[in-house]
Amino acid sequence: MIMGYQKPAWLEALYTEKFFVGCSYHENAKKNEKNVCCLDCCTSICPHCLPSHRFHRLLQVRRYVYHDVVRLEDLQKLIDCSNVQAYTINSAKVVFIKKRPQNRQFKGSGNYCTSCDRSLQEPFIHCSLGCKVDFVLKHYRDLSPYLRTCNILQLSPDYLIPQEMGEEEITRSTIDEQISSYSGSSSSSSGSENMSIACTEIVRKRRSGWTSMCAKFMANNTINKVSDEDMASSMISRRKGIPHRSPLC
Q1: With bands split at pLDDT 50, 70 and 90, how would you rate the model's confidence at 243?
Q2: What residue segments make up the domains of the chain, in order of their start?
Q3: In degrees, to the nearest 5, what angle opens at C-alpha 216 toward C-alphas 212 and 220?
C-alpha cells in the first residue's frame, strides 16, 4: 500500500517475495531455488513446484549483479516499462525489480533516478520497476493506465528444468499414454505416421534424453510389423545351401 492506493497483488508479490532461496516444500531436492513468480498465486516457487502451477501465469526471475531482474519482453506484457533503464544479459534486455540506491551521491549534470537518485543513461528516469511504480503512485495516484491485460504468460524456452524434479515422472507417463494410444493402430500405415508425429512432438517439447526411448520404441514397432512371409523369405535367403562332398576314392 502506497499513498493509500493499492498495487496489483502480483506486483506486490513480485516486489516482496524472496527469490533464489531454498524452497521449503522441496528442501531435500536438488536445484530447489525459487526463481519463478506465479502471478496467479502471488508467490515465489521453485522448478519442482511447476507441475502444480503449469496452467498459471509464470514469470521467471533472474539474477544480475546480486539483484533480482526480469526480462523486459515478459514484463512489458504486464505493465508499461517505458523510461525504465534496461540492461542486457545473454542478448536479452532485463529490468531490475527493486530500487538500487547508491551509497554516494554524484554531483554534476546528468540523468538521475526519480526515486533513489541513481545515475542513469539518457533518456531513462527510473532505475527499476519499483522506482517507476513509486513515482506514478506519488504523482498520479493511479497505476491502472500503466497496467496491461495478460491472461497467458509462460516461461521462456531457455528455462532449465532439473532432471530430478517430479515432473519427469509426469512426462514419462504422458509419453507412455501417447505410445499406447497409437499402438493399437500400428498395423496401418496411417497409425504409424500418427505415432511418429506424436513421439516427435513429445520429444520436441521435452528434454532430448527421451529421444533414445522414443527411437527404441519406433524400432521395435517396425520389427513387429514385419509379416510372416517376409520373415520366412528372409530366413530362406540366409539358409546355407546343401553341402557337396567329394566322391570317395
Answers
A1: low
A2: 9-146, 170-224
A3: 175
